[in-house]
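Good day; I would like, with your permission, to put a structural problem before you. I would ask you to consider whether the tokens describe a fold that such a sequence might reasonably adopt. The full record is reproduced below for your convenience:
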Amino acid sequence: MPNTLFEELQQRGFINQSSDMDAVHELLNHDKIAVYLGSDPTADSLHVGHLVPIMMMRWLQKYGHKPIMLVGGATGRIGDPSGRDTSRPMMTEETLAKNIAGLKKSYSKFLHFGDGASDAIIVDNYDWMRGYSHLDFLAQYGLDFTIPRMLSMESVKKRLENGMSFLEFNYMTFQAVDFLTLYRKYNCVLQLCGADQWGNAIMGVELVRKKCGKEVYVLSTALLTDSNGNKIGKSAGNAVWVNEDKTSAYEYYQYFRNTPDDLVEKLLKIFTEIPLEEIAELVKKQGAELNEVKKRLAFAATEIAHGTEAAKQAEEAATALFGGGNSENAPSFELEMSSPMGILDFLTAVKLFDSKSEARRMVEQGGIQIDGEKITDKDYIVEPHESIMVQRGKKVFLKVNIK
């Protein structure tokens, strides 16, 4: 018997905490509701670290609920202090517009937009927040937020010692007004958020209760971390972007293909729609068979984000580069190279090796060819020209296109 939605989300590891778990369980399984998820336009693409609540929203839509995707044109002008030790840099209007367009492109990869009952819509909180003067905002909401309550939030506590600005201190009030506005306009009764947004989201629940006498709810997801327990995000320097102009479909595929063994089951459940029964069988495999499971994970995740054809091309390119390929079907790499480059720098720049020491050993062992010429000198200089064919060992080929 198929799972109900709540059980599906729970078994896949999406659910972290809720303001009222029983009420949310009832809403998701027995009603059709409007649900919102927000993201500030701090970059022109979502990254993998953002996708846990996005994938949860995708499941909600599959079960008939209506996604409301909010881009924070207003909150992005303030900067969310959650999970940060310093203020976010202020953005220009041009950067904000570019980033908002990029977020909309990212959302459309995972959700279906339109005018239907369960079709997703995009809203921008700048559309309603810009209508308030400072006096208007204080008059309407100033008595609804108390200083002790605001100071109790973890996002505030962590920043007080570092000098939190009044600008950032107001962030949670803006997010609370977002929930109130979406409740009034769309009867939105549930907000999805990452665990680090919990305090801000709860403020919205409290504001709707004060202003309307109604209950709305929050459902949070756990943060996605790497093998070292670090949050995956652009600020940590390890982001894998959703939009292909920042991370290619091939690189996206490779990210999931290189999943550590202990994370395979977790990522299969969150980033694919492979049935849970099948996942349970897949994760029983070990050794070389587990590598095939990682390929299945990579293809399924890439197919959702980039489409079937891009996933096939990424799979074929990975096979050519890492598994018995030849120069005819070699993947390509775009490299900015305006002047000659040492062979070790070149090989690491095109990501054939993680370090110069690894590259040097392969060169000295005679395992590298450049345009058919075997290179054994670690000081060899690669001259830039339109296209360079690199061969590593007998089976690994890479076509480097020079920009």
